[in-house]
Amino acid sequence: MKQLVLALIIIGAINWGLIGFFRYDLISNIFGTNLEIISRIIFGLVGLSGLYAITFFKGQRTTHG
């Protein structure tokens, strides 16, 4: 499960980087306007993966002293 979440986060990060640097939306260009619903599902899964990834930090608290 964590590998899938990380893969989706990486895909999302790469896509955001492409949008930011080149104004190129890879996901939307792959699926085109005919399959816009698939693009929206992928974007939704990337967002949910980001939220789930917050739990990766749970239990990683360290004490300083």
TrEMBL record:
Keyword set includes Hydrolase: no
Short name of any one Pfam family annotated for the protein: DUF378
Key words of the record: Membrane, Transmembrane, Transmembrane helix
Parts of the chain that traverse the membrane: 5-25, 37-57
UniProt superkingdom: Bacteria
Keyword Calcium (UniProt): no
InterPro entries: DUF378
Name of the protein: DUF378 domain-containing protein
Organismal lineage: Bacteria, Bacillati, Bacillota, Clostridia, Peptostreptococcales
